[in-house]
Design brief:
Residues 79-156 form the Thioesterase domain. Helix content is 23%, strand content 30%. It contains four helices and seven strands, in the order αβααββαββββ.
């Protein structure tokens, strides 16, 4: 079978290292929601990480990350398909993880690591049954010092069939500084 467009995108990227996977696990392990996904959601590949500029920021427009997960029973509805809220959780978590992967102390770091959601809009196209391996592609469409626009497409890993898409807007504010007189 020929490679899907999603697989071609993922194959052109840098595979996630064990260090990337460990850091990802550390960041998302603080979550209590969707615990069934926490052990099986993993980074798969990333675009090259841009250099930090003189202001401590990165140029990330168009930057992509790919994550993978297999649908488990704990995230399905009573029909046995992945629940819409699980799709939205994946969009929220993976888009946030893409920002965290690229943060610096002056750019989307603490105290609001990865920022806070302003808007999350979902579209659902097809169902995913238990056992379906998912490919999650995150694109940072636009990001500056305070606002990020992200897109996330979730598809069946084997067939390339798109299951859902989400558009996520996030806001960030750096550490408060004290003014000197």
């Amino acid at each position: 079978m020929p490679l899907t467009i999603d697989q071609q995108v993922a194959d052109a990227m840098i595979p996630a290292t064990q260090e990337d996977k460990d850091y990802f696990d550390e960041v998302i392990s603080a979550s209590y929601f969707a615990r069934d996904f926490l052990d099986v959601l993993k980074p798969y590949a990333y675009d090259v990480q841009p250099a930090v500029n003189s202001r401590g920021m990165r140029r990330l427009e168009g930057w992509k990350a790919v994550y993978e997960v297999t649908v488990t029973k704990g995230v399905t509805n009573f029909f046995g398909f992945m629940h819409g809220a699980a799709h939205a959780w994946l969009v929220d978590t993976c888009t946030s993880a893409a920002i965290v992967h690229n943060h610096t102390p002056q750019f989307w770091g603490q105290p609001m690591l990865g920022g806070v959601s302003v808007n999350l809009d979902m579209q659902y196209f097809n169902a995913a049954q238990i056992g379906t391996r998912l490919r999650i592609i995150v694109t940072i469409e636009r990001i500056n010092a305070t606002l990020a626009n992200l897109r996330c497409d979730i598809s069946d890993w084997e067939t390339g069939t798109r299951l859902s898409s989400g558009v996520h807007t996030k806001a960030w504010r750096g550490p408060k500084t004290t003014a000197s007189l």
